[in-house]
Amino acid sequence: MQEFADFSLKFEGQMQRRRYWQCGRCQLIQLDRDQLVNAGEEKHRYTTHENCKLDEGYLGYIKPALTYARPYLAWSKPLRALDYGCGEGRPFQELFPPHWQCFHYDPLFFPQGRQEASELDVIVCTEAAEHFHHPGIEWQWMVDHLAPSGVLSIKTGLFDASMDFENWWYIKDITHVCFYSEPTMQWIAKNYGLQLRSCKDNVAVFTKKGL
Fold first, then answer.
1. What is the bridge-based pairing of β-strands 80-84 and 194-200?
2. How far is CA 155 from CA 9, 34, 173, 206, in A?
3. Distances (CA, A) of 195 to 151, 154, 171, 204
């Protein structure tokens, strides 16, 4: 890891130092571990998010995670689907087809939600991957619980070198602590036995190799 950026940002009226590191292999950018918020602070922040309301605007915002995955899914079959990092609102209960068997997991709101979630045909993870304190563990769990023909769709803000990281709106949420780019997604595919099918509009869609 090498230092990527070091500056101060204002959160709830207070200036806080933010130091970021970047992996030289996968290009993932992570907040210094000493600056991570605890679970209580994280939950407080989540409860202020507009996505708890499940309004049309938010559902439209996250729907591309399912739209881009659809070409790789047997849509009419009774698929097993997991909303990973669903938050308090469980938004994909409004977007998954009614004939699918659906599971909802969130470490703060629905921590038991993934106990029966195995051999999953589709996992959607929207606006959650940037919150991972231990991304390697989270990604490994998702890959391990995908069916052989499973699809993994991730929606998160993607960074590229042309952007001004210090002024990027996405880092200004105190719970956003790791940031991906297209090269990161390519590295994940290569190292987790996946195929990156598409990576655009802040959505990366993976399938297990061989699909």
1. unpaired
2. 24, 26, 16, 12
3. 10, 13, 28, 10
All domains in the chain, ordered by first residue? 2-208 (3.40.50.150)
pTM: 0.92
pLDDT tens per residue across span 50-69: 555 577 899 999 999 999 99
Give 134-198 as a 3 state SS string: CHHHHHHHHHHCEEEEEEEEEECCECCCCCCHHHCHHHHCCCCCEEECHHHHHHHHHHCCEEEEE
* Cα→Cα distances 134→71, 109, 162, 192, Å: 30, 18, 27, 15
